[in-house]
Design goal:
The complex is a heterodimer of chains A (80) and B (594). Chain A is an all-alpha fold and 80 residues long. Chain A has 4 helices and no strands. Chain B is an alpha/beta fold and 594 residues long. In chain B, helix 8 (180-187) crosses helix 11 and helix 12 (261-276) runs parallel beside helix 16. The radius of gyration of chain B is 27 Å and the shape is globular.
Chain lengths: 80, 594
């Protein structure tokens, strides 16, 4: 799967979980800049991505997945 | 099963807004927020729009004591869920370092806190209270010695805490214990806990555990609302036995004590177990009736018998239409049915034509799992099982016999007289409280006010000097129908008010309802009232009784959209069914026998 495919599925999951528009989800957004991205929605996003991609993140990975590029990179590194 | 993201999408659907609100207040000491979408989703599937309000992380006790967070005061259902490791870190995490005296005092401290919390919660709200027990630690710190430690193992201590919790809940009334150990046992350690989020955000439970607890909470809610399903409708071929009856000889059907027939026999036993709990059984199968009944009668592997089946539609017609007829014949709503079939086509057909029926696909290549699928469904869960439940299938069988007798005797009154009915009226005592509460929770159609009462509520009516709870039992030459109806009468000076009047639909049309109404009048007279008032509160399901009070001689005094108020002077005489063999009661009812 290409990085772009992975990114598309990540963005879709974020839209579902955080109820935000696609346009709001650029590479720069982070929990600091996006109001809907708080610690609870981050947890829900992690659960959703684990279901979506059928894998399990470590606690260290969860804490580092703080931007879309970082999430995509983590997923690709885990073989998504 | 939809994924977490799919659930989020489904919860944004517009239809949700039209469902009745269910406000759930949660007292907790750990991060439980991810349960919210699961709870809202399972409530939506049961026909409710759930809102979930959490107490603050450390505020559970404060809220129970003074209600300052207003989590409980606006709840229809209060959920108390304390995480064991947070409630008692010493018992959960340091157990082997404690002396027996330490364990005992920590156990008492923890239980004391729980009692304060539960009693406080009850003071804040009369809503149904559901307390999640502590899960028995699956990895006890004493290892294999835990079970040997003469009552002081970690698991034994948790069981003692749970027993204490159950006792406290029983004393509160309308309060129930959700057994978290069952959830843990179903899922296993890996799927129950999420240690990552325990460390990152004090969220101890994995999503599967939250999903299971959410489903269980909904099952409790449905049971308290009287919305549990009542009737199991079974397809026959590849459901009750393997293969198609009529296309194969008996020897070709899979049914018996050996594989593969043992899977079907095991499933039939579970169906019989449901019948013993009061679930009505029916058949809906595409076949020739004689072919199916021959298997029932003559196949040596059959456990179910013809007399276990209250209604059947064995024909080649549309199954949705057949299900409609079965519900009508049994006098129950379509939303009381669960339908099992091995054909995806039939299941889809029923789902689209009758969405209120729970239609479940049993994949024929997984017959070995049928039993577990049935047990895990939870469709028929009730809060308790009464003696009445245990004999329900016999009653429905008797009803089927009555219908046959009816066919032989065309004149209705002559038929009713031939039944030799005996109605027995009584003021409810302690032995009837559970059954009466259950009737108020379950009866939807013949129910004038649809007020749902807990056992405690009924006890209050029974014990109060100003109210009476009247019950009616009916039997006839075919059998005992049991306690089929009840009324609650409240007296206010010269006026007697019928707070509740309800009856099981299986005795509908036999004059029992008339006897019950006239008995309310007789009871009011005994209390020296001069007038009696009846109410009709319209619900989605009680259109059947919209004209009931008029039919028993009451006059309308106030009519609004949702409520009609009727009155009758006690000096006015009512109509009395004359086909009962006897009507007996605790007050003069001879007049009723005229």
């Amino acid at each position: 799967m290409s990085d772009a495919d992975v990114r598309g599925r990540v963005v879709q999951a974020m839209m579902d979980i955080m109820d935000v528009e696609r346009a709001a989800l650029n590479d720069e957004v982070s929990p600091d800049t996006l109001e809907a991205w708080d610690s609870l929605s981050h947890m829900n996003l992690v659960l959703a991505l684990e279901e979506e991609f059928g894998l399990r993140f470590t606690d260290e990975e969860i804490m580092a997945m703080l931007s879309i590029p970082q999430i995509v990179q983590t997923l690709v590194a885990k073989g998504a | 099963m939809p994924s977490f993201a799919e659930i989020q999408r489904l919860l944004r659907s517009a239809e949700l807004a039209s469902l009745p609100l269910l406000s759930v207040g949660v007292l907790r000491n750990a991060t439980l927020e991810p349960i919210e979408p699961y709870l809202r989703y399972s409530a939506m599937r049961a026909g409710f729009r759930a809102e979930v309000h959490f107490s603050s992380f450390a505020g559970a006790f404060q809220e129970a004591l003074d209600g300052r967070e207003k989590v409980l005061s606006r709840s229809d259902l209060a959920l108390v869920w304390l995480h064991f490791d947070t409630a008692s870190p010493r018992l959960a995490r340091e157990f082997p370092t404690l002396s027996r005296a330490d364990v005992q005092s920590e156990l008492e401290r923890t239980l004391g806190e729980l009692r304060v919390l539960l009693a406080g919660a009850r003071r804040q709200t009369q809503a149904t209270l559901l307390c999640v027990g502590f899960e028995t630690p699956p990895l006890p710190a004493l290892g294999i010695a835990d079970g040997e430690a003469a009552g002081f193992g970690q698991q034994a201590v948790v069981r003692a805490l749970n027993d204490g919790m159950r006792e406290a809940l029983a004393a509160l009334g309308n309060a129930y214990f959700l057994d978290l150990s069952q959830v843990l046992a179903r899922l296993g350690v890996e799927r129950f806990y999420d240690p990552r989020y325990w460390h990152i955000g004090r969220a101890p439970y994995a999503r599967d555990a939250l999903r299971e607890v959410a489903d269980t909470v909904t099952r409790y809610w449905v049971a308290t609302r009287g919305r549990a399903r009542k009737c199991l409708v079974l397809d026959c071929d590849n459901v009750l036995w393997g293969g198609i009856a009529g296309e194969e000889e008996f020897a070709g059907l899979a049914l018996g004590t050996e594989h593969p027939g043992s899977a079907f026999r095991e499933f039939q036993q579970e169906v019989k177990n449901l019948a013993a709990r009061g679930v009505i059984l029916a058949l809906c199968s595409k076949n020739e009736p004689e072919t199916v009944w021959r298997v029932f009668r003559d196949h040596p592997g059959m456990l179910l018998q013809e007399r276990d089946i209250a209604a059947s539609r064995i024909n080649w017609r549309d199954k949705a239409e057949n299900l409609r007829e079965i519900a009508a014949e049994l006098n129950i709503g379509l939303d009381s049915l669960v339908f099992l079939d091995d054909s995806e086509f039939e299941v889809e057909r029923v789902r689209s034509a009758l969405p209120m029926v729970e239609a479940v696909h049993l994949p024929a290549d997984r017959a070995v799992e049928y039993r577990n699928l049935l047990l895990a469904g939870g469709w028929f869960d009730t809060l308790s099982i009464s003696e009445e439940d245990r004999t329900r299938s016999a009653m429905y069988r008797a009803e089927a016999d009555r219908r046959r007798a009816h066919d032989e005797i065309p004149d209705l009154t002559a038929y009713l007289r031939s039944l030799e009915m005996v109605a027995e009226l009584a003021l409810a005592g302690p032995g009837e409280i559970a059954r009466v509460a259950q009737l108020t929770q379950r009866t939807n159609q013949f129910n004038l006010t649809t007020r749902r009462y807990s056992e405690d509520d009924i006890r209050t009516f029974v014990e109060s000097p100003d109210s009476d709870v009247l019950t009616i039992r009916v039997s006839d030459r075919f059998g005992d129908a049991g306690l089929v109806g009840a009324a609650i009468l409240r007296c206010q000076g010269p006026l007697a008010i019928v707070d509740t009047l309800l009856m099981s639909c299986r005795v509908l049309g036999r004059g029992v309802e008339q006897v019950l109404a006239e008995s309310c009048v007789a009871l009011a007279a005994r209390r020296h009232c001069s007038e009696i008032e009846g109410h009709y509160l319209r619900s989605a399901k009680n259109g059947l009784v919209a004209e009931f009070w008029s039919s028993v001689g009451f006059q309308v005094v106030k009519r609004e959209a949702a409520e009609v108020v009727y009155r009758r002077r006690l000096s006015d005489s009512g109509s009395r069914p004359d086909w009962f063999k006897a009507i007996v009661g605790p007050f003069p009812v001879e007049t009723l026998n005229e």
